Amino acid sequence: MGKIIVFVNQKGGVGKTTSAINIGAYIAKAGKKVLLVDFDSQGNMSSGVGAKKDKPTIYELLAGQCSCEQAVKNTPVENLDAITADTDLSGAAIELVDEENREFFLKKALEPLREKYDFILIDCPPSLGILTLNGLAAADSVIVPMQCEYFALEGITLLLQTVKKVQKSINPKLIIGGIFFTMYDSRTRLAQDVVRQVQAYFKDVVFNTIIPRNIRLSEAPSHGVPICLYDPSCVGAKSYEKLAGEVIRRG
Predict the structure, then answer these.
(1) In degrees rounded to 5, what are phi and psi of residue 131?
(2) What is the pLDDT of residues 154-181, one digit of tens each?
(3) Is the whole model's pTM more than 0.90, yes or no?
């Protein structure tokens, strides 16, 4: 049975979608079957991985208007599939949710796919709203990308409080799969201090690999491909390859 991992950070611009795409791509290149699930109505993951946003999307799957097989789309990376999203998803919390299953509609939709993939990676919106709660309810583990800045320290405390609440009331099997740093600039003392503080407090939860600032990582989404196809020799690509290896080893 495949492992479901949700990428969560309520702060935007931390590299969450970029990380989900590139970690998924490198896990696929390692020979694992991977499904990326775009659970953000902006649809950035869909664009960044080169998957067509044609119907059906995750919204149609949630609404019962298509099968899992119909919702899954191919990507340019072998072993890597995707379920795309568009602006229709923004209405899902209102149109598809009732009081009894408000946190579980994604979990129910993805359950038939667990047997077909080694890893299912969910990219949630930058918020702690109902879509993110559904991602946490559906997942086995949560991975947190964290930017190396002061306010990120406050944000991660709030996020982990939310995760604890989910563990108590919605998904007791959910674990913290790991925290990793993005957009790291070794030239700044602030970045170094943030890394030291988080490593000291969270210890083994923090991944060893740190993702540096790298312009090639920013360019790749505009070409609709992960970094492994855009510039596999750049420092950003090599860093994500190492991080994907860590994710696989943690299982």
Answers:
(1) -65, -45
(2) 778 888 899 999 999 999 999 999 999 9
(3) yes
